[in-house]
Design a protein that fits this description.
- This is Oxygen tolerance.
- This protein is of the alpha+beta class.
- It has helices at about 1-35, 160-185, 195-200, 200-215, 225-240, 250-265, 270-290, 295-315, 325-365, 370-375, 380-385, 415-420, 455-470, 535-545, and strands at about 40-45, 45-50, 55-65, 70, 80-85, 90, 95-105, 110-115, 120, 125, 130-135, 390-395, 400-405, 410, 420-430, 440-445, 470-480, 490-500, 505-520, 520-530, 550.
- The protein has three domains: about 40-135, Immunoglobulin-like (Sandwich), CATH 2.60.40; about 195-315, Four Helix Bundle (Hemerythrin (Met), subunit A); about 385-550, Mog1/PsbP, alpha/beta/alpha sandwich (Protein Transport Mog1p, Chain A, 3-Layer(aba) Sandwich).
- Strand 9 (about 120) and strand 10 form a beta hairpin.
- It is elongated and about 135 Å long.
- The model is unreliable at about 1-35 (pLDDT under 50).
C-alpha cells in the first residue's frame, strides 16, 4: 500500500514538472483549431413540388484576413439557380461568419442530386456534401378531370410581323417616289415670266420683246452692240416663225432678197419703202456689230421704232392662215407640249435612277455589295444571324449555348444493341430550310456510371453518318477545345462535299463537332454550313463562343 502511494506521488510530481509544456502544446492545438476555416451547409427541405424552391445555405467561419469565393452561375445542375442572395456577414472579435443562401428549383419530377459545391478559401477548395432533392408532380384529380394522351409535336408557323413590316416599308417607299414623280412631272407648276413669253404667239412675243428693249439700259450704258444684236434677233426670229422665212441663218443681203421674192410672188404684201427701211437697219446693225460703228442714241431709238413698224406691217401683210395651217399649228403646239412632258419624265426617271445608283454605290462601298444584295433580296443565314438569339440549356447533363433559333427535341430510337450501353439519349436540333446550315446537340447517359466516354468511337460514328447521307471527300482535323468557364473537350472540324437537302447535287461545306463528357455520360454539338457562307461562319463562331457544359452527371 505504501509502495503504491509512493508511485502515485511520484507520478503526480512528474506531471507537475511537465505541466507547463503540456499546457503550451494544448494552446497551440487550440489556436490552430480556431484559425482553420469551417464550412457547413443546410437545406430547408428535401421535398418540393414542380416549380417550388428550396433554399440551400452555406456558412463559412474564417478569420478577418481570409478571402472566400462562393459558387456562381448554374453550378447546381440539374437543379436550376433562381437567385443567389447577397452574402450575410457577421463579425465576432477576429472571426467572420459568412452566410450565403441560394434559391433552387426544378420543373421536372424525379429525384435529383444537388452536386457538391466548391467553396474556395484563400485559394484552397472546400467541397460541400451532396444532397438528394425529391421533386413531386402536382396531384391531379383523375375522377373529375379526364386524362388525355400527350399531343404530338406540331410546327408553329412563324409570325408574319416581319413580312408586314417589309410590306409597309415598301409602300412608304413607293408613296415617296410617287409624290416626287407627281411634284416633278405631273403637277402643273406656275409658269415663269420667260415661259409665259415663250407661249405667246410670235407677233405678240416680238412686240413684247421690243418693248423690253426700249426700257433696257443698253443705250445709257453705251452698249450699242448688245442693243442692235437683240434688235435684229427679235425681228429675224419673228420673220422665221410668222412669215416662215429662214432669217436667222441668212446674211443681210440674203434676207432682203428672200423678202423681195415673197413680195413678187404675192405671198408677202410689203411695199418697197418698208423693205428698204429694213435693209438700212440691218446694215447699220452690221456696222455696229462688226465695224464697231456707233450711231447716235436718237438713230438707235428710231431704228427700234422702225423695226416695230416692220413687224406690224409684216403681220398685216401676211395672208390669213387656212384651216389646215391652223390645224398644223395646233398639232405643232401639242407636239411641243408632249416633248416637254416627255422631257420632264425622262429627267425625273434619270434623277431617280441616279439617286438609286449613288445610294447603292455609297452603301456598297461602306457595307460591301454582297451584303447589300443580301439585304435587299434576302439571305437565309443572314436573317438568322441578325435575328433574335436564344440562350438555353438542352438535355441532361445540360449543354448550354446561344442559338439563332430554339432547338427542337428530336425523337431518337435506340437500336437493341445500343440499349445495353445507353440508358438515355436526348437530342435537339435545327436545320435551315435553305442551304446547308444545321445545328444539333446530344446528351447521352450511360448505363455504367463509371464508364468513360469513348470519343473516338463517337467521332467515327458521326463521320459514318455524314457518309451515309451522301457526303464525300471529308477532311478531318482535331484539337482541344475549352469553354469560357474552362471545361475542356475535343473539337473535330473540317470540310467536305455535302448533298443539298432534297437534291443530288454536292456542294462544298464545313462541319464542327464538340465533344464533352465524364464518368457515365457524354455530350456533343454538331454544326454544318456552306463553305463560302460568311454569315453562317459568323453564326458558328458565335455559337462556339457561347457553349457551356456541365461535366458532372
Amino acid at each position: 500500500m505504501m509502495y503504491n502511494t509512493c508511485i502515485i506521488k511520484k507520478g503526480i510530481s512528474n506531471l507537475r514538472r511537465s505541466m507547463p509544456m503540456f499546457v503550451f502544446l494544448l494552446f497551440i492545438i487550440q489556436g490552430f483549431a480556431q484559425e482553420r476555416p469551417t464550412v457547413s451547409t443546410e437545406i430547408d427541405t428535401t421535398y418540393i413540388k414542380i416549380g417550388e424552391q428550396v433554399h440551400w445555405t452555406v456558412t463559412v467561419d474564417i478569420d478577418t484576413t481570409s478571402t472566400v469565393i462562393f459558387p456562381e452561375g448554374q453550378t447546381f445542375s440539374p437543379l436550376e439557380t433562381v437567385e443567389a442572395f447577397a452574402t450575410d456577414t457577421t463579425r465576432k472579435k477576429d472571426r467572420l461568419t459568412l452566410q450565403k443562401i441560394y434559391a433552387l428549383t426544378q420543373f421536372d419530377s424525379g429525384a435529383y442530386k444537388l452536386p457538391s459545391q466548391r467553396i474556395e478559401i484563400n485559394g484552397m477548395g472546400f467541397m460541400t456534401d451532396s444532397m438528394l432533392i425529391n421533386v413531386a408532380t402536382i396531384p391531379v384529380d383523375t375522377l373529375n378531370q379526364k386524362m388525355y394522351d400527350i399531343k404530338p409535336l406540331i410546327n408553329v408557323e412563324k409570325s408574319n410581323i416581319e413580312f408586314w413590316k417589309y410590306i409597309l416599308i415598301g409602300i412608304l417607299v413607293l408613296l415617296v417616289f410617287g409624290a416626287l414623280f407627281y411634284w416633278l412631272v405631273l403637277r402643273k407648276k406656275p409658269l415663269t415670266e420667260e415661259e409665259k413669253v415663250a407661249l405667246l404667239p410670235p407677233y405678240d412675243r416680238a412686240l413684247l420683246e421690243l418693248k423690253r428693249l426700249e426700257n433696257s439700259k443698253y443705250l445709257i450704258q453705251d452698249e450699242y452692240k448688245q442693243y442692235y444684236s437683240e434688235l435684229t434677233s427679235i425681228v429675224r426670229s419673228y420673220l422665221e416663225e410668222d412669215a416662215h422665212v429662214s432669217a436667222l441663218e441668212s446674211t443681210t443681203g440674203q434676207l432682203i432678197e428672200k423678202l423681195e421674192l415673197l413680195k413678187d410672188a404675192g405671198e408677202l404684201k410689203l411695199d418697197d419703202d418698208t423693205i428698204k427701211q429694213f435693209q438700212q437697219i440691218l446694215q447699220t446693225a452690221d456696222l455696229v456689230k462688226f465695224a464697231k460703228n456707233k450711231p447716235s442714241t436718237l438713230v438707235a431709238e428710231q431704228d427700234r421704232k422702225l423695226v416695230e413698224q416692220i413687224v406690224v406691217k409684216t403681220h398685216d401683210a401676211l395672208p390669213e392662215p387656212t384651216e389646215d395651217e391652223l390645224l398644223e399649228q395646233a398639232e405643232y403646239q401639242e407636239e411641243l407640249e408632249r416633248k416637254a412632258k416627255k422631257k420632264k419624265i425622262m429627267v425625273a426617271i434619270v434623277s431617280v435612277v441616279a439617286i438609286i445608283l449613288i445610294g447603292t454605290t455609297i452603301a456598297g462601298v461602306k457595307y460591301g455589295f454582297g451584303y447589300l444584295k443580301d439585304s435587299v433580296f434576302g439571305h437565309p443565314t443572314k436573317e438568322l444571324l441578325e435575328g433574335e438569339w436564344v440562350r438555353s440549356n438542352y438535355g441532361f447533363p445540360p449543354v448550354q449555348l446561344e442559338t439563332p433559333q430554339v432547338l427542337v427535341r428530336q425523337e431518337v430510337k435506340l437500336p437493341p444493341e445500343a440499349k445495353a450501353a445507353i440508358a438515355d439519349i436526348q437530342a435537339f436540333g435545327y436545320t435551315s430550310p435553305i442551304g446547308l446550315f444545321s445545328l444539333g446537340t446530344t446528351s447521352i447517359t450511360l448505363n455504367q456510371q463509371d464508364a468513360e466516354p469513348d470519343f473516338e468511337k463517337t467521332i467515327e460514328q458521326i463521320l459514318s453518318n455524314f457518309e451515309g447521307q451522301g457526303a464525300k471527300n471529308i477532311i478531318t482535323k482535331q484539337e482541344e477545345f475549352s469553354t469560357i468557364s474552362g471545361v475542356k473537350g475535343v473539337k473535330v472540324y473540317g470540310s467536305g462535299e455535302f448533298l443539298i437537302p432534297n437534291s443530288k447535287e454536292l456542294i462544298d461545306g464545313k462541319y464542327t463537332v464538340l465533344l464533352f463528357g465524364g464518368k457515365g455520360f457524354q455530350q456533343y454539338v454538331i454544326l454544318t454550313w456552306l463553305e463560302d457562307d460568311t454569315y453562317a461562319q459568323e453564326i458558328v463562331d458565335r455559337i462556339l463562343a457561347s457553349v457551356e457544359v456541365k461535366t458532372e452527371s
